[in-house]
Amino acid sequence: MGKSARSGQLGRGEPHRTRTTGAAAVSAFGRVTVRLPGGPLELGPPRRRAVFALLLINAGKVVSTSSMISSIWDTGPPDQAVATLRSYVSRLRGLIATRPLHGGAALRLVYRSPGYVLDAAPDDVDVMRFEQLVDRGLAARRRGAPPETFALLSEALRLWTAPPFEDLLGYTFADHEAARLDHLRLTAVEARAEAAFALGRSEEVLPELESEATRHPTRERLVYQLMRAQYRDGRQADALRRFEHTRQYLADELGADVGPELRRVHGEILRHDPALTSLTSPRETAGSPVRAAHTAGPPVPPPLVGRRRALRRLLAAEETARRGDGRTVLVVGEAGTGKTRLLQEFGRRCQEAGTDVVTVHCPQCDGMPPYWPWTQALRLVTARRPDAVDALPDSLRRVLAPLVPELYEDRGAGERPPLSGPGRFTVHDALSRALLGPARRPLVLVLEDFQWADAASLALLPFLTRQSAESRFLLVVTSRTFRIADDPAFRATRAAVLQSLNAEEVPLGPLAPQDTAQIVTAALGDGVPPDLRAALHARSGGNPYFLLGLMEALPVGATPEHVRALLPAVIREVVIQRLSGLPADILAVLSACAAPDPDSAPGDCPSPEATRRAARGGLLTVDESTPQRIGFVHPLVRDVVRQELVPAEPPCRSVCSLARRVVAPEGAGEKTPRHEHQAALRAVPTT
């Protein structure tokens, strides 16, 4: 761990540590080992070792016989599985009972209906001691005690001498436990680094951060901490190179951009911000809330602010799928509403529950080949569960060969068939069977940004939804509101999917005022005046991405008036990019509604249908108290449209009455005063 050797030394007044003298009696780091005073105990053949490991992972808990059989023989138990399992347990019990263990440790393996339980003290098992120390270290972090946090997490990380359960690779339960422990280790690495920054000891964690960030290039929190540590070590150029490398890697591998935290630290490094060298983390900068925003920028928002209900629905769908009732969930929201962050938290929860999650990001690019998201998903599933994919029949591989050539070529079958061979139904059936086959064990497939999917991929979605009804397969598809509400093909697909009993939609709308207030408070402190919080909510329209961008650009001493006029360059460019993909008639409606004065509205009259589509797609809204008025959902979008799209041309007078007809209730009077005509066009921010 580089320079961390002294990190566990406790000074006067530091907390008492868990006992660590000598090696643990039972070790799962590397090869599973039971230590005797004279040397390691030979546990026997791989399956017997797997039985011991399964009981060790669940130490103190009863593991049912049926669960043990399905875990040890996950590809199908033999005829005499129960008898064989009993012989394994009996042999293990004899080995443990007849030999004293290292350090006087005591293990008990007993039958307790409906299965077996292994009793072991946490201090006698290295992985249990590791987890206990990490829990205590994270609790110390929550109490705001950096010395205790640093000491406990350093002690925990010294126990990690090798990846756990290395000799049991291929057993699903062991792979899941190893992945869970590794996630916990990375959490400890990050929390220890934050404590090191607070203590002025960043040089001690720098080698470790360099190693971990290289191994986990998509874990942006590690990269963020590495850049801070490199800057503190006088290596500004290395920190900037790391940022560019990460940005390029995310773009190439995931089709994604770096998050706000990395962009913020990049800007701080470029301007040599003093916050980077202070002992206080930028997440904890004190003082005036607006000053804190100016010097350090806002942190990543608190986990899933305003999205707990959506998370509960996703977790409920995963639980349903795990029981054998496959589900499809559409997660729909405008860009910046937190779809990706929601799915990150959902994926973490799935990993903790032992469910595999495969994620595919659909890029926005021309020339995407047919079924691209699905073929990428199949490639990832193949890598994750090769045995299940190897069981696919040759006839199915032949159909899929034009899409995923390696499935056919790996069998030495010679030249692959042409793409024009099978019809659409045959391809849909083959892809569905190939994806659902590995779902004999629970599997979650996430397709992000499906609004960019090709027509063939779109057509497969309702087909797969119906076929997955009796599987352990959960499909989560995200899409932006406008595309799925406006594009006829997407609307038809959405309707077809939601007609299935095993499908549902989770909409992500704007955050409520209390939710944006929570983010503002976390970023700027408790002293933010209520009127400033209200102004940030109104200006952002409840969009988390817009809110973060506004807080990053908030000037020192900002007032609500400053917020109402704020249009950060980064948000401006993002909105322009989004507008560039809208149809011309929708842009015409937006231009008309954004005009500050009806006399400056565009000359071309948009159609009533285009106005309805803009409202249906989440761009415009109707003021319920005054139905004659149309407003933008996001004031920032309104102002960008006003600056970029509204020309200085003579108005089209009928636009006013058109807007009124689109939103006015049936039976409204024919005559409308001119000031109401103007109100029909004037965009009003919603709260």
Low-confidence stretches: 1-21, 281-302, 410-421, 598-604, 648-687
* Overall SS class: alpha/beta
Which homologous superfamily in CATH is the superfamily of the largest domain? Answer: P-loop containing nucleotide triphosphate hydrolases
What portion of residues is helical?
40-55%
Distance between the termini: 51 Å
Q: What is the name of the CATH class of the largest domain?
A: Alpha Beta
List the helices and strands and how they pair.
Elements: E1 26-27, E2 33-36, E3 39-41, H1 46-57, E4 63-64, H2 65-72, H3 81-97, E5 108-112, E6 115-119, H4 126-142, H5 146-159, H6 172-199, H7 202-215, H8 220-232, H9 236-254, H10 260-270, H11 289-296, H12 308-322, E7 327-333, H13 339-352, E8 356-361, H14 372-384, H15 386-390, H16 394-400, H17 405-409, H18 424-436, E9 443-448, H19 455-467, E10 473-479, H20 481-486, H21 488-498, E11 503-508, H22 513-524, H23 530-540, H24 544-552, H25 560-565, H26 569-579, H27 584-594, H28 608-616, E12 620-622, E13 630-632, H29 635-644, H30 654-663, H31 674-681
Parallel strand pairs: 7-10, 7-11, 8-9, 9-10
Antiparallel strand pairs: 1-2, 2-3, 4-6, 5-6, 12-13
Helix pairs in contact: 1-3, 4-5, 4-6, 5-6, 6-7, 6-8, 7-8, 8-9, 8-10, 9-10, 12-13, 16-18, 18-19, 19-21, 22-23, 23-24, 26-29, 27-28, 27-29, 28-30, 30-31
